[in-house]
Every structure is written in C-alpha cells, then in structure tokens.
Amino acid sequence: MSHQELLKPLDVQGLPLQGRHIIEASAGTGKTFNITKLYLRLLLEKQLEVQQILVVTFTKAATEELRGRIAAEIRDVLTAKRGEFELNKTEPDQSLQQQILLLEKALLHMDEAAVSTIHGFCKLALQSQPYLNGIPPNAELEADCSDLLIDSIADWLRALSASQLALLKVKDPDKFYSTYRDAIDNLIPILAPLDETQIAAKQAAYKQQLLQYLLPLTNEIEQVLVNDAAANQRKKRAAEWQRISEFLNDDMALDNEILEILCGFFRQSRKFSSDDQQALNKVTPLFDKQSGIEALMGKVYSLRKQLDDSPAYQLLCDGIEHIRNEYAKRKLDAGRLDINDLVSLLSQKLQQPDAKPLIEALAAQYPVALVDEFQDTDAEQFGIFNALYPGGNPAQALFMIGDPKQAIYRFRGGDIFTYLAARESADYRWVMDTNWRSSAQMITAYNALFLASGEQQVFGQGIDYAAVNFPPADKQKSPASNVLDANSNMQALNFIVDIAGPEQEGKKLSAADKDTARQNVVNGMVAEIAHLLNEVQLKHQPVQARDIAVLVPNAKLANIVKEALAGRNINSVYLSDRQSVYKSDEANELLLVMEGLLNPNSDGKLVSALSTRLMGGNAQQLFELQQAENDALWQFKRDEMAELRHQWDVQGFLPTMMTLLHRYFIPDAHRHERSLTNILHLLELLQKASQQFRYPAQLHNWFVQQKQLDKGGDSHEQRLESEANLIRLVTLHGSKGLEYPFVFVPFTTEISDPTKAGNSAKACLKYYDHQQQANRLSLQYDDEIVRLVKQEDAAERARLLYVAVTRAEYRCYLGVSQFDDEQHATPLGLLLNLQAGSTLVSRLEQLTAQHADMHLQFADELMQLLPANDLPIQQALPELALSEFTRKLQDKWRISSFSGLTRVSQAMRLDKKERTDTEAVPVIVQPAPDFSQLPLRFTLAKGAHAGNLLHDSLEHLDFSSRDIEHWQQALKQPMADFADEQLQAEQLIDWLQQALAAPLPALHPEQTELRLQDLSRSQTCRESEFYFSVSAPQAAALGEFLAGFRQSKHQHNPLPLPDELSGMMHGFIDLIFEHQGRYFVADYKSTHLGFALSDYHHQAIEQDMQAHFYDLQYLIYLVALHRHLEQCLPDYDPQQHLGGVYYLYLRGMHSQGREGIYARYIEPDWIAQLDALLRGNNTGSHVSASGVMAGADL
C-alpha cells in the first residue's frame, strides 16, 4: 500500500485532539484556514489558553500573519456566538455563555499567544526554565559571531606543525572558513576516511569488473587494437597489451602503473578501425564515456586519490570537529549566541539523561503544538518536538503540517528525510487535496504535467504525487468568466520555447548560444506580458502589472528579465533583493561625499565628491572645474563643501545630508526609486550610528567598517523601493506561499552541478545515508556520494518547479531553452521523465496535443505579434474611489501607563497646572541662596535632563563597588549625554555615594536597616519594563477602590479615571531589589524641594507624592511585580515575599539621616484586590483601612 493510500481526507472538525498527526497540505488547499479552525477547537473543546497552544512556523512574517488570521477567526466566531446568545437571552445557554467567555479571554490575551518561529520558541524555552544551566544568564543573541569563529580557526591553524600545514591546501583562516563553511556550520557527522583495507576491497571489486569487461573479448581486443593498429603504433600497443594480459591472469593489484597503461590503451579519443567488423562491434562499446573502461578507470583513480589524500582528510576531519567545539565554547564564554545556537542548545538539553524535569515543564506549559511548514524541519528541530510530544499521552497533541512537495530549503537546513521519518511516527495521517487557489483548468493542467512521467515519486524518494481536486463548480475560479483574451491561443499552462525548428534540437550550444536562447525566451515572455497588459481583462478590468509575477532562480537572471521589461517601458520591482545596502552604488557615492566633506582642501577628494549624483555631478561640470584658469569655480566649490562641513559640525549629519539632497541630488533616470530608497536607508542607518559616533571622522570610519564587514541582518538588506503597480520579480524560493493571476517562469531548463561552486569542486558534500538513515558530510569525493548528492538536488529542483507552477491562479508560462544534450537533467525534463538523447520540444508537443489546457508557443512567434517599439504600455487608468475600511477595530483597547492615566487626571482638573516628577509643589517662596556655596544636589538644573542623568547613572552603577575607576566609567556616558561642561564627575560621585549610603527604614519587624550600597548587582533588577493585561475593569469599581485606599491614608486628592481601561498596562520600574527574601520596588525622583536637606522632610515628600499620584504609580508597579513573582517564583506567597516601596528623592538623601526617603509597606490584600479589578473581576471586597495602617509608612 502506497503512502498516498494511507492518507485520509482532513476532517478538521472531527479529528482527535490528541496523539501525533501528520497533515499533508498540497499547494493552495487552505492550510492556514484549517489551522485557525483547529486552533478554535483547542480553545473551546480542550479549553486551553492561548499561552498553552504552541504554534510554530519558520519566518517572523508568517507568525504575524498567522497570529492575525487566528485573531480574526476568533472575532468572527465570537460575533456569531454573541448574536446567537442575544437571540436566546430569555433562556440563556450556559455552554454558549462559557464559549463566549473563553473566546473573549483568548482574544484579550492574543498578544501573549505562543505563536512564534522555531528560534523564538527555543529562546523562550531556554530563558524561562530554571532547569537549564550552562547558558550565560545575560547571553546576547547576535546575527553574526563570525569573529569568534575566525579566531577559533586561526588558533587551530597556528597550533599545527609544519608537516601538518603542508597537507592543507588552504592556510588562511578566512579562506579556510569559506572553503569548508558547509562542514563547519552543519553540526552533522563527517564521513571518516577509508582505511587501506576498505580501499583494497574496492580495488578488488573494480578488478573483477575489469575482468568481466575484458576476459570475454581478449581475442577481439588483440585483433582490433593491436594487430589492426597503425604500423607505427603496433609495437607499443603489443607491449601494453602484454602487460594488461599479465594483470588479467595474475593476482596483481590495481597499482598506478597498470592504471596508466589501461587508461592509455583504452583512451576514449583513440581512433581505430578493423576489417573484422564483428570484432570491431564488440570492442567499440568499451570506449563509451558512461559505461566503458574509461568510466571505470575514473572510479579507480578516484579511489587511489582517496588513499593518497587520507592523511590530509583525517587532519581536516579532526580540525573541523575541534573548530566546532572551540567556537561553541567561545560563544558561551563570551555570552554571545547566534540564532542557530538556540535550536542546538535546546535540542541537546532535551536529549540529556537528566532532561525529564525540563521535558515535563515544557510539556505542561505547551500541551499542544501545531508546527507549520513541517517539511522544512531539520533533525534537531524535530528532536525537540519528538522529545516533548512522544505520544501515548491523551492530554498532549502534536500536529505536523506541511507539504513534502514544497520542501525546497535544503540550502538553509531543511531536511526532507526528517519529514519522511516523522511521518512514519504519526498516529494519524491526513491529506488536504482540494485546491482553492487556482482555476479548474490550471489544476487539470498541472496534474497532467506532474503525472506525465508515469512515475509517482517524481519529487524524491517517498514523495508521491496524487492528482489534486478542484472545488465544487459554484466555488471555482473560472477563466471563462474572469479572463477575457480574444486574441490569443494561450491556455492555463503554456510552454514558451526559444527556437523554432527541429534542426536545433540536441545541438551542442556554446555559452553565447545559451545566452541567446535565454534571451529569446525572456523576450517572448515580455511580449506576452505586454499583450496581457494591453489587450486582456481580468474580472472585467484591464490586467494590472501587479497581477503578473516572474519567478527567477537568482538576481542575475532577474536582471535579464528586468532589462527586457524596461526595453518595453514596463516597470518592475525585484522583491527578493537581499543585497546589503552597504554594497550599493549609492553607498559608494555617499562615502565619496563624506570624504569630500572631511577633506574640503583636497582637490582629489573634492573632485570625487562632485562627480557623484548626490552632488549633481556631470561631465561638463567636472571639465569646467579642471580648467587651469577656473580658480574662481574651484574656490566656490570649496566654499560650498566648507559650508556643508560646518553644518555637519553644528547641526549634525542628517540635516546636512538633507540640505545636500535638496540642493544637488540628481536621481538616476532608469532607477530613481531604487536610488532614492537606498540613499534614505543609508541616511537612516548613519543617523542612528551618529548617536554613538558623534564626530564626523568617527562616523566615516564606522561607515567604512560596515562596507568592509559585509555582516548580515535585516536592517542592512536593501528595502523595497516601491509598492506601486509594477511587475513582480521574485525568486523561486521567495515565491513560496504567494499567489498571482499570471505567473511566468522563464528558466525551467537551467541546471547546475551541485558538486561544484562556480567552476571549482566543492570541498564538502552533504548527502543522506539511507543505510544509517542520517545526514552525512564528506570531504572526499566518492562515486556513490556524488550520485546521491545529484539525486537529491534533482528531486529538489523538481519540487521547486512544483512550487513555481502552483503559484498561478489562471495561467502559468514555462520557458524552455533547448540546451544541448542536458535536457533530460533539467527540472522540466525530470518531470517528463525525459530520457538521454530525447528532446523536450518533441515530448512537449506530444503532451500539449493530449491536453487541451496546455499550449506550446515558440518565442519568436510571440515577438512577431507585438511590434518592437519603445512606446510605453498603455493601460487604462483605474477609476478612483475611496477604499472601504473593513477591518474590525478594537477601539477601546489601548496600552495604558501611569503617565497616561495622570495626564487624563490633570486634563480634567482645569484649575491645576500639569506637573512632572521633577517639579516640586511650591509651599513657601524663599529667595535663592548663593549657588556658588551649594553642593551639586541643589544646583543641578531642574527638569527631565537632570532626571535622565541620575537615572542613567544609577542604572549602570554597581551599588556595592568602591572602585573609583568603575564609578568614572559608569558615569562617563550619562555625563556625556547630559552635555554640561561645568558638571564635575567628582561632585556627582560624592552625591550619589551619599545617596547610596542613606539608611532605608525597615518595613517589617524582622527586617534590618538597609543601605543601597549593601546590595550586590545580582540582588537588583534595573529599569525593568513590564506589560500586563487589563481586562476592562468598571471605572466605578476602580474609582471606589482608589478612593478607599486614599481615605485610609487621609488623602483627599481625587483621581478621575477614563470611562474604560482595557488592553495593556505598560511601564518601567527604576529598581527592583531583593533583601532578606523579600522583593521591594524603588523609584528615583530628581524633584527639587528646596536648597537644604531639611527641605526634604516627611511632610514635604508626602505632599509631593499626593500631588503627583505616586500612590497610583507604586500600586501599578506592585501589581506588575506581584504578577511576575506569581509566574517565576516557586511557592510564591505575597505575605512572605512582597516587601514594599521606597521612593527616593535623591536631592535630599545623605548618609546621616532619612531625609528624602518615602517608605511604605502595602498589605498584599490591597494588591490582590487591585489585581482582580484589573483582570475584570469586580466582585472583590475592600480591605479595611486598619489593615493598611498596620504597615509601615515613613
């Protein structure tokens, strides 16, 4: 029974919500739609929370789309159920009401839903579980740790002896990495070198093959190659034959001498003839390239080379293993991890003998997982899910969703063999086989194409193709009603062939001939694109450029298409451009301009800058400038550059560049959008860097380094220059998941040797060992390994063509360039099971004659239909209309904060002026004292800048350090940001040391007096950002709570609230610290209350606290801390673990008293009640005032 016969049609509403499921979703079959339906069942039937349903996919964009689709589905179902509930309000359905509550809760917490990439999930798992060790707690995730890798390689090379170095072909660390990158980066076993015994066994097997070739034909060989040889060759050949005969009839080994004789004697290029036609017919096949003696000799030579290279090979194997381990160690020591480390570390942790607590914790946290795009999973990733969801637990479920026919990411680690192994372990197998994307004609056509070979497994071992169904007639996309094309024979699937006439078929083509063939196909397709834009309607409207996509293998071939389109005045955009913006022409020009500004007196730098488009450079201007008598023009240009340089020094980098752009910039007429996009992108990156590198020379050096480093990262990739109505150029890999009405695939006959990088052989080959059922790497070439590599590559290229064809809704055009005798090895040739020597055109003519939904057209015929001219494509302008806004907004949902709430309050109290935490409430106006006699704490300017200086300083200080160098270093950047030349570090240090030495009163009987300087860094958490959900508490209930809390403290300053508070509460807590097992909140205030320590007494601070609603602030902070400790502290008890709050008015704090300190313990019942109110539970009762007063309030 085939795998396809084991699959059952997916019943998303009826499948069991337990066990391990494999769901094979062919292209366009509504995979995301069914994922959302399955998610809703898990919410309603298993009553799981969104934080418990792990949804994993492989890109950040896909996670955001999936999260949005799930939220939209929840809203739609919730709306329907609310309507149903209202209809039956007199007899409410308790089950329905429960479902509504579950959906409302899920929607409210959707931002917390466990929808992430595999790397995001691994990061969360590594950070959240206390069972993990060996990972630095402050490890930073970086896109690039290559400096540590190069250092590891350099150290290994440095440790080798001279004789060992002589064995290596590459001795430079950077070149070594580029050569053996696949072996170093892929943490899979490297095939051990063959030993002499294994090689001898292979040589013996090859000799047996030789005997089978030669012994039955010894007489014929002697007759044709010796007796009938030319007279001047006969003696030499006789001697060679004598030596070969001795080898055949003796136990001689296949040594190098006999190999040379055999290869010379049976040289494929040797010309021979004989009057004995019968003997000649028997001898001739021995010289066949593929199966003759020469092919066998190639295998033997390869084997001998393996033996000769064995010492070097073993050294490389040992070295690469050492480099892998050393690189991993250095990253951990440095607290730096790259994105792939996340998966590797978690996978390794889960395989360890002591992993049971971790597995149980993660499985309890995520009882169900849905893994999207599962065909792109690798062995390490599946190892994680296999460990967490082993099967047999009715409370668990693992849904593996993917399409093996779309497994196209082998180059970045995707492993189809992992998918096939996982499929075998599934308890349930389902299939989605109804295509909702394409028209019935399109589906019929590509079914015929993918079944044309007569072999089901055209996409690789274990991957069947079964015909895909189309939807019921009333839900189909019909070309007859949607595509109006009166002047064309085109069908759903069209083949555009480069050369008309059978005389070209199978002809050996030069590189230039191949370029011409490619160009012919592209030109034919561009002619058809022009026809679509000018003459065809889609859904009763002219076809738009955005309806058309051209899918290409790479940027080089995309450029061929882009230029051909431009030749017809058809604009296009390449959506898959991943080149670094630092490598762009605009980056080179910007660097020249910066160097000109930095060196305005250098004639060479000045001319280089003026030659750029950024400076409006043109040949005439440069010619005039360099005339000997034009000194005035030279001086004028120097003055202009000096003016810009002065602006840079005074106003900064970005204003200078904007002045330059407005004054001089001339965009490239052929790529103005691309050019302007790159310039603005570069200016954004440079402006951001200028915050750190403030001096022009520093910023220039940073820019030079970025151009040289060539680091990866999303921020460096060139941005899409336009989202206008343009033809979309997309790579084949980048097209996955997309759909377009019309799809063009010009290069279906392009092939490359997977064992080569350019014109050189790859140093490392990755392949799948079917006996070991595991991936392997080999640094030596073996015929069987090469065969497996080419077989896997051919299967993936066929899958890539499947992805391309299935992007089309109505039409797909496949380009066919007839490249000599390699047509059978092309992706299209593989799908058609084309045999060597056969031609694609003849096979396609046969196929299109059998299927009405296919059509074959020669490219030159298409070009004749459209006159060659440079007139722009005339498209009817669409009728302008306002777009209808259909999105459902949650207009009451918002992110709130203490500042936002108090702004609402101050706005409602029109008689009072809005205040900040750095303004005091004026009590008595006194004349200012002599500032020259006052310490810094009283003279430091009021306002936000002073607050930032103090907060930033305390954030970076180690409170317990007495090292003056540490203090100076910690304060260096905050003082630089404060930018006051009169500020002395010694004064600031003295002030802050006094504040840290101030005694904080104990808030509990068992608590000892505390000073901040007694706290180690590990006891503190600085600038803690928090978000927590707020579930629409009733304003009246919340107001009543706050009034009760304030009355208990004799506070009469009312706090008006917005009508509804719903969404998220957000804020930053200056300091959380642990002392004697309790956790405290502290907040720094730079408020100026007076010019003497005595001005910072309890009554003044109390008044300031009330005036600015800081009681509300610390209540919010305590709820945030309470919720956090609930999640991460085992056996959490608020009575035992919550300490209280300290508000520290820094200007009044000193080591000899308690001025400037507000301290208070809040009864946990108050915090619990506010927490319940913010969660939407309005049934709690108030705590008595006496309960609060029992706490300390100082």
TrEMBL record:
Residues 475-737 form the UvrD-like helicase C-terminal domain. GO terms for biological process: double-strand break repair via homologous recombination. Mg(2+) binds at residues 951, 1070, 1083. One of its GO terms (molecular function) is ATP binding. ATP binds at residues 25-32. Residues 892-1194 are annotated as: Nuclease activity, interacts with RecD and RecA. InterPro entries: DNA_helicase_UvrD-like_C (IPR014017), DNA_helicase_UvrD/REP (IPR000212), P-loop_NTPase (IPR027417), PDDEXK-like_dom_sf (IPR011604), PDDEXK_AddAB-type (IPR038726), RecB (IPR004586), Restrct_endonuc-II-like (IPR011335), UvrD-like_ATP-bd (IPR014016). Binds 1 Mg(2+) ion per subunit. It catalyses: Exonucleolytic cleavage (in the presence of ATP) in either 5'- to 3'- or 3'- to 5'-direction to yield 5'-phosphooligonucleotides; Couples ATP hydrolysis with the unwinding of duplex DNA by translocating in the 3'-5' direction; ATP + H2O = ADP + phosphate + H(+). PROSITE patterns: UVRD_HELICASE_ATP_BIND, UVRD_HELICASE_CTER. GO terms for cellular component: cytosol; exodeoxyribonuclease V complex. The active site is at residue 1083. Its cofactor is Mg(2+). Residues 1-838 are annotated as: DNA-binding and helicase activity, interacts with RecC. Residues 4-439 form the UvrD-like helicase ATP-binding domain. Its EC number is 3.1.11.5, 5.6.2.4. Heterotrimer of RecB, RecC and RecD. All subunits contribute to DNA-binding. Interacts with RecA. NCBIfam families: recB. The C-terminal domain has nuclease activity and interacts with RecD. It interacts with RecA, facilitating its loading onto ssDNA. The N-terminal DNA-binding domain is a ssDNA-dependent ATPase and has ATP-dependent 3'-5' helicase function. This domain interacts with RecC. In the RecBCD complex, RecB has a slow 3'-5' helicase, an exonuclease activity and loads RecA onto ssDNA, RecD has a fast 5'-3' helicase activity, while RecC stimulates the ATPase and processivity of the RecB helicase and contributes to recognition of the Chi site. HAMAP family: RecB. Belongs to the helicase family. UvrD subfamily. This is RecBCD enzyme subunit RecB. It comes from Neptunicella marina.
